[in-house]
Amino acid sequence: MPAPPHLAQTLRSRTKHFRSSSRSLFLAVLVGVTVGLGAVVFQFLGHLVVRFSLVQYAGYAPPEATGEGTPFTHPPTTLVPWMIVVVMVCGALVAGWMVYQFAPEAAGPGTDAAIDAFHNQHGKIAARVPFVKTIASAIALGTGTSGGREGPICQIGAGIGSMVAQRLQLSPRDRRILLAAGMGAGVGALFRAPLAGAVFAAEILYSDAELEADVIVPAATSSVIAYSIYTQSLPPEVRFQPLFGIKVEHAISGPLELIPYLMLACALIPVGIAYVQMFYGSQWAFERLPVRPHVRPAIGALFAGIVGVGFYYLAGQQMSALAVLGSGSGTLQEAVHHSLRLGPPLLIAIALVKIVTTSLSIGSGSPGGVFGPSMVIGGCFSAGLGLYLHDWMPNLAPHPEAFAIVGMAGFFAGVSNAPISTIIMVRALTGDFGLLVPTMLVTTITFGFGRRSRLYRKQVPTRMDSPAHRGDFIVDVLDGVQVRGTYRPIDSYSLIHESMSLDEIVHRLADNHQHYFPVVDADRNMVGIFTDDDVRSYLFHDAIWKLANASDVMTTNVVSVTPDDDLNTALGHFTALNLEELPVVEDHQSQRLLGMLRRRETIATYNRRIREHKEGTRE
User: Fold this and answer.
1) Are strands 488-489 and 581-585 parallel, antiparallel or unpaired?
2) What pLDDT score does 20 carry?
3) What range(s) does the CBS domain occupy (predicted)?
4) Which domains does the chain have, with CATH numbers?
5) According to the 3-state scheme, what is the secondary structure of 99-147?
6) Which of 68, 441, 519, 579 is 20 to 30 A from residue 549's alpha carbon, by CA?
């Protein structure tokens, strides 16, 4: 017995949905596997470059976070500080040549380029970009460039997702989703925070409190797969540890302890603004240097190296001072667990000098990220401030190390406009879940006051502002807005009686700027309409002016609207028939004329509604 028609249709719909879901899951898994392997290669190349550049020639093995899990054992060496500058310049020269020769899109941080590809490039990233970004970033970061791995892995993951989508000839929407899923997979794997990676991919695209909802599930799937593959490449002893080592639980014992964190938030806002301004000021200056772009990263590395090594000597040759170069993750871990060993002046100085070296390094076009430096800046500055607050008010700030953890999240949330994923990520990096309330307080404040000065300038405010969603929000904007409040009453129009002679009509047109002329009967019911163009065809036939009347000129095929119709319907008539005005009648049966609706005023209402939607003021 055949299934009823409605049941058969339901079964077909469910089968289609199942196939679509299965395909999306398969593609997300495929992207996760590829990005996970890419993260393993990227991390290994970075350690390889460190071993045979900084360690080999400068005797410097940058301290790393416990969970990094380097595959190399560094031999005993003697530090030669100024050789660090030489190695940095050579590395930046090679990386700069690779980037600008083969993939100029891979220059700089990388996250902004991925965001731009999502919004403005239909999800397309050239296939060469992830390969060039992997090698060039490993060289630049491995030779001491003050940058992070988040930007490169974002662009690498986004490039892989885009490449998979293009090879399978997917739609622009699917390309964008896989691009974002690749971003989330890269971040989730490298920072061992798959949930944070998924939310980051959906949140980082917008500067307002907005999420790309379609991205979350595919990005979560990709992140889990990439994370699982990446962690298998780590030594067993650190495989399931947080990146910053042993878990430490802090907690607050009362609401008064939030006061020092409120002071921390107020202090982080100007530091974040200074960081963004200096970064883009440096980028502006380097773009105007009269040299080939290929050598700009080397110039930036030279100045950054001089600043970093000079700071090392000014700080009394403390190894922690070299955190202003490279990733600085080892020093950041010390700030999280043992900030008292470093002391407040050195911690705050590291944060401020790190702003300079990162701006010189990444602002010059060297491939690297800004997330890692942001963590060091926010963490070290907050740890130093926490020590001061502990001295001033020990009862309200009993755990100064906790300020480093909260400050990392608060600072990056303020400069990146990504508060939710940042909270999740910092919790995963440290394993500390006891500071959720102060972290939410600080990130909310820095996000609210730091939004005008954002690190990722390719972000758009909301989905309505994204070219990726152009057309998604225009269909229903005028639904429910009635013609009643927009049309012009008929009193302001010159009406034509159906019996009026053509001679009278011509003379009336001479003194009238009206374009559309409704024709009515004795009861003011509309029987037709004509335009001044219709009358002009008779101007050279004055012999028939006395013979013809309005009925001979008008058209009876009139499209009209009523006051209860919505403007969406009217706009459809305007567009389909290429009209500038529509008659407004009491009802379609009587055709009693009430006024005229103009296209210009309908468009003005539409624009006003769009502004209200954007500003959140729609009634």
Assistant:
1) unpaired
2) 58
3) 487-547, 554-615
4) 18-467 (1.10.3080.10), 472-617 (3.10.580.10)
5) HHHHCHHHCCCCHHHHHHHHHHCCCCCCCHHHHHHHHHHHHHHHCCCCC
6) 579
